[in-house]
Amino acid sequence: MAAKKKKKGKELLTLSQVATAYGYSGDYLRRLAEKGRLRARKLGRNWLTTADDMEAFLESRERRGVYKKRIRPRSK
Known about the structure:
The chain is of the alpha+beta class and 76 residues long. It contains three helices and three strands.
């Protein structure tokens, strides 16, 4: 059976990983997830989201006019 490939952006990431990549604090992203403003799910004690969901959140902030300058994940 062939292994399924996950599409980039669909891979589940912890909010800590996303916070590091996008320059936000993990606590801020957790509060957004709890309020439903950032699409995320809780697995055990960890919150998980995808890069696509973070991008959607950033775009929604830009549409509303509430945003930092455009932030993208840091290159490794």
